[in-house]
Queue: 4 jobs
Job 1
Amino acid sequence: MTYHEEDRVVDWPHWPGRPTGAAQRQRLERRLLGVGMPGRRHLLFLPGQAGYLLVEREGSPPPAGARLAVGDLAYVVARVGPSPLPGDGRPCAFAHRDGTP
């Protein structure tokens, strides 16, 4: 039997009812970053005077651009990504000091 590439019909990936494109990407981001998942914890990666500070918090991480206060200091979330700790599955919000008055 001879194999011909033109004989092969591929309709992949096609799963009825399963999100594709932008919906699939959003679903994966929520799952990977823990967004919208109750009972999850996240980390905040914050600059300090003598280095960086990791703060653990309940819930989903704040989105990029969110303003937050820790103690009496104000921060802005630059991005959300994986924890900087090896083997840690929690998402981490990386922030910088808020320079706005």
Job 2
Amino acid sequence: MSALDMLKILLGEECGSDDKLLLFLLDEAEQYALAYTGLSELPARLVPTVARIAAINYNQRGMEGMSSVSAGGGSRPADPLPGTIIRALDAYPAGKVVNIRAPRRN
């Protein structure tokens, strides 16, 4: 299943957007995932995560710059990404430390 198909399923019937917006959001989410992980290519296992990031960005349009959201008499921080997505991205380390100490030079 393509990332676009996954995104449409996640957005459900409310998604009346054309594919251009959805493809833009998917590209933006993929670039975020690649920058976060330090990878140059997106592994197939991260495609659903990228679709989820794009869905979150779709649903948060117009909320840029907000620090909290109020609903139902309560307030919560406007977290950019939930922990499940961060954990999925963290499974791909941003860098690899080979030696934490530089060799001594005489």
Job 3
Amino acid sequence: MQNSCRGNDHRPDHPDVAQSCHYLTNLYQYRGRYADAEPLYNRALAIYEKALGPENPNVATSLENHAALLRDTGRSAEANEMEARTKTTPAKHAEEIQPV
């Protein structure tokens, strides 16, 4: 499996590409391939923040998932920082959240 996510029908900074990255990171994390997952979390987060804005619920979800990976790899201090960023994202209604 290649360590990339891309959208054949989308620009590289399209939110659907970020969603694909998330799906791939979930698989990598499940398989213990943390080093492969982390850059994709960073990419998905950057895309969501740029395309949807830093207050979008997908940004908070991305931060939470990345924090879980950091905890899985024994990096609790970094996970705490990541989770602290989620506190700055206002709560939104569930129907506003794009699938991640």
Job 4
Amino acid sequence: MILSLFYFDAYSPLQKLIERAPTKLVFSVNESYPGDVGFDPLGLKPSDPEEFATLATKELQNGRLAMLGAAGMIAQELTNGEEIFVNLGLAQDRFDPSTLPVQF
């Protein structure tokens, strides 16, 4: 009985995936750009390679700035032990250290 469950739950879908898989994968080094996998459902990717490189650089810089911002918020919370919204006055400090499973 367990084997029949395995067949219907796992083997059958896996077999269908194997049947639909391409037999030969072709990778073209000259026509690809790192991170460009062809997923652009809204058609936002520029057709000009130079404009695409500029947009990719802008996205990288935006991501780096966001990581710095998140690190700053985490550092502030670690410095005084209060959450960022408590520091901004947007929330009440309801944290009770006695409820932690490990006491420091």
